[in-house]
Design goal:
Elements (H helix, E strand, L loop, with lengths): L2 E6 L4 E6 L2 H7 L2 H12 L14 E4 L13 E6 L6 E6 L1 H14 L1
Antiparallel strand pairs: 1-2, 3-4, 4-5
Length: 106
């Protein structure tokens, strides 16, 4: 718990970090940690399609367990240069439903 993997698609490099334990205690789950890193590292002036934009994938404290609902994770990113934040909750059932709906529309 508390591991962070950064992947830079521009330079094709990756690095591992540890999320500070105090931050995990203060923010608890995926919503808090995803929002924290997005707000701290991506300014409102960053174009969502620029190399400075980030996609942040996070899972909650029960991720990797057999607890009901623990298969969910979230994706955070900015969707516009003016402070909007995209938060998508993903898991087995919602993804399947979205995939089926998109497949029937095409």
């Amino acid at each position: 718990m508390g591991d962070l993997l950064r992947i830079d698609l521009t330079t094709r490099t990756s690095s591992e970090e540890t999320v500070p334990p105090q931050l995990i205690k203060e923010l608890i789950g995926a919503k808090g940690i995803g929002t924290h890193y997005l707000c701290e590292e991506v300014g409102p002036e960053v174009d969502p399609l620029s190399p400075g934009a980030k996609l942040i994938f996070v899972s909650g404290p029960m991720g990797g367990t057999s607890m009901l609902g623990s298969n969910r994770y979230a994706l955070y990113s900015r969707i516009a240069p003016h402070e909007r934040v995209l938060r998508v909750l993903l898991g087995r059932e919602p993804c399947s439903a979205v995939s089926r709906e998109l497949a029937t529309k095409s």
